[in-house]
Amino acid sequence: MKVTISRKAHFNAAHRLYRKDWTFEKNDAVFGKCNNPNYHGHNYELIVGVTGEIDPETGYVMDIKILSDIIKDEVENQFDHKNLNVDVPEFENLNPTAENIVVVIWNKIRKRIKAEFDLEVILYETPRNFVTYKGE
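Structure tokens predicted for 6-carboxy-5,6,7,8-tetrahydropterin synthase:
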């Protein structure tokens, strides 16, 4: 019997969508106001789901406190109140779109979750715009 446990979290961060190898005009045409050279910010909401068998001894899939600590260490402490383009090494050469951010977060959390568990990360950039990543 497989069950998914989920933990919600949030962080606030600034970013700019642009490609260094494109002209300002091309970046502006593709990314619009998200290409603002002075950046813009979001109040990101995050849902991390871990799916696996229930441990018959504990009744847990995994301890939700451990999942909470992983999210705090790998995401909140590293992304909250940061400029993703400037302060987060993973985005030095990677455009911090919601799609790229969710994959980076998934990879950071995946390395801390046992291999027998499935992992899904949902990232809300706005209340109406969100992306989901379950791994490759």
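The chain is about 30% helix and 30% strand.
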